Amino acid sequence: MYEINFEIPAFLLSLLCYIYCLTAKHRQYILPKGFKNKLANQHFVFLLMLVTNILSAISSVVGVYLTEATFTGVAFWQYLFHAFYFVFHATLSVSFTLYIINVTSTSINWKKIYYILFAIPYVISEIIVLTNSFTGWAFYMDDNLIYHRGPLMILLYAIGGLYVALGFFFFFKNKKAISKVDSIAVAFFIGIATLGIIIQAVKSSFLVELFSESLACLVIMIVLEEKSGHIDLTTGLLNRIAFTDDNRRLINTKQKYGLVLLKIKELDKITNRFGGREIDALLINIASYLVKESGVVEVYCYRRDGYAVLYKELNYDKATDFMNKALERFNNEWKIGSLELKADIITTLVKVPEDIKSIEELENLISSGYTKAKTGSYYVSIEEVKEITNSGKYEEALRKAITEKKLMLKYQPIWSTSEAKTVSAEALLRVDSDELRNISPEVYIPIAEKSGLIKDIGLFVFEEVCKFLCDERIKNSNIKYVELNLSVYQFMYNDLIDSFEEIRKRYNVDASKINLEITETAATLDEDVISNTLKEFQKLGYTLSLDDFGTGYSNLMRMTESNYQNIKIDKSILWKVCKEEKGDEMLKDLMSFVRTLNAEIIQEGVETKEQLDKVISCGCDYIQGFYFSAPIKDVDFIKYINNEQNN
Ligand code: C2E
Ligand code: MG
Ligand code: MG
Description:
This protein is an alpha/beta fold. Helix content is 55%, strand content 14%. The termini are far apart.
């Protein structure tokens, strides 16, 4: 005799869950197109599980009822419902595993062939069940209409067991794809469903399996499926929480996918002009356009003006196509009631994991304002976005370091070939903060220049150098002057010379002790301003050096006009000629050319004895490089020159 007391609650429970899911109008139950995409959708598989539970329960209850019925032809109906039961029952274990595979993102990049392999055992079990009326391999009814298990029933159980085991395997393998709460729910789901199967396997008349599975589904629904908190209230798209959750899951399981980011430009301005209600309508229109045009269901509104479309594809063709279409669409107006609104967007394609390795990196990226000074809608490459993001980050860090007084200088010795000793030093900026300690000034100086922070930095460097020159130990050494880098951007400030002079006089430092290194940049600055300022500095007694000679921007006219005391050949030139066959000659020619300008030559970047010998033989006057010393703190520099003098 069968105990069906559990089948009816199982049926009701699953039915209720099903109705709830579909009537709650959760966005996740808008399912993707295409059967393969549906199978790769967690919510579709959840619905599939509920439907199988419901149908299994119905066929089980009817089947059991029929075992007691006595009407004519009952044998056929009994047989039919037993068969139904097995058809649905076999689907249960496979959908159960498919659910776990989806939740843990195991299947995101599954090709068709994986699905086919995955389905083979299932298909075998269905063939056994469906052909059972001819074979009786799964079960048969004897003359007294008593049900018996057939010889292959054990295989059906084994296949069910195989799927459950696979479910376990994928769960443990990719557990870190899901949050702790979710994984507890999945563990409970697996545990309780397995318990039901075991109880029923041991005591076959005790039909609890479906009930335990329905219960497990309820837990899953409450924890993993009930995602109303994942929906953006205005647009109905998935929200920021869903965005972070889904991406964390995919990144943690090392999946390959593409994200198209779309940012509406100046939404605040549009809102101020047209009013909140109109803008809500605009956003709803945009959202439904994105869903329709992208052809995927993973469309997010992670911020009122920020949207993302997730493409779980190994190539990025679809994502690129969509992006181009969107750019075109946003060139036209959106009709909102009687209004025609225009919104511009900035789009970018993020390839994971090539472009982004962690969820933090992604969060950083979407929270940064990656805007260029450009009108209309446009595309920015991820490289540009990163550059803009970083410069924002570095600017922030630099600003903080300035207020927290984390700037400092290091000094690199400059060695005279004729005197065979250190005669000067170059002051180089360092930032002693966690964010910038290991970042080269080559990265943040340009940011300081563009953000205006260079003004304060420049004054700090100048004052530090003056202090350094006041040190008695420096005064009494062979150090004739100190070189410091002056950015041409500092020339934009009219009070540059006055502020330098004020500091210099305060420390009572002779101007001839200060050498200003200028780099000729492609900056669009007024040439006259630059050359007039330089002349002014020279009149006051400062000397000048032309830095980074040979890197491309040198303006020969200006070089001959201004009286540079030193010309510093860039380290990259030395390193390049060291690799070339006729390198020695090239360097010699370059140096003799520099000499025609009446300047002395400093070679930067000398790291080895060979390089040293080479530049000396080419006629270089001064040498700066790691061969002698890297840039060092002021106290270490004093020790360095003391050592040199004593040896
Ligand atoms: P720069 O003025 O050409 O300074 C020389 C750079 O070459 C320094 O890098 C120095 O550490 C490095 N260097 C010198 N010899 C060697 C060597 O033998 N091997 C190697 N690998 N490197 C060597 P640093 O300190 O990273 O500075 C980079 C650039 O940042 C400077 O190039 C300069 O353009 C800028 N900078 C540094 N400090 C300041 C500053 O206070 N103000 C301004 N405006 N720019 C600065
Ligand atoms: Mg320099
Ligand atoms: Mg240089």
